[in-house]
Amino acid sequence: MKSSRHEKILEIINRQPIETQDELLEALSREGCKVTQATISRDIKDLRLVKTLGSDGRYRYTASQDNTVDIRSSFSHLLITSVLSIDRAQNIVVVKTLGGMANALCAALDSMGNHSIVGTLAGDDTIFIACRENDDASQLMAYLKQQKNAR
To answer: Can you tell me whether residue 144 is helix, strand or coil?
Structure first.
């Protein structure tokens, strides 16, 4: 069931522009696939879907054409173009993004394999990053801000 849903998701995003998880959820529903938003979120992560800028200036989900894509380059681009603010509270780093961009940025961050990160949680425009230690969060925040400002 999961693999057929993944195939259906790839078919949908190749057929029509999908900008948000809600749009993907609606498109799947029209195709007879009943799933939750949480399932969609996991599928996006599993499929390594990213949001790319279309010729119309709008972001939409696309599948990576090559799994060897330089994740750091994609991550930096997403960080520069979509992050509004970066802050921390003890061992939690909070990243505010443009609407609909948190999941893509979070998936790129997760794929980088930073061992000081215990876990991440993305909403529509906010990412919570739990780090092992306060110092790890401080270093991650500094790194993210450095990358954000490295235009």
So the answer is: helix
Query: Does this model's pTM top 0.90?
Result: no
CATH class of 2-63: mainly alpha
Q: How is residue 120 annotated by DSSP?
A: E
Lowest mean pLDDT among 59-73, 97-111, 112-126: 59-73
Task: Give residue limits of the domains in the chain.
Answer: 2-63, 71-149
Q: Provide the 3-class DSSP secondary structure of residue 4.
A: helix
Look at residue 72 and tell me whether its pLDDT is greater than 70. no
What class has domain 71-149? Answer: alpha beta
HSE, CB side, 13 Å, CA atoms: give it for residue 145. Answer: 12
Count of Cβ atoms closer than 10 Å to residue 60 Cβ: 19
| Cα 69–chain centre separation | 15
Structure tokens at 89: 């509270």
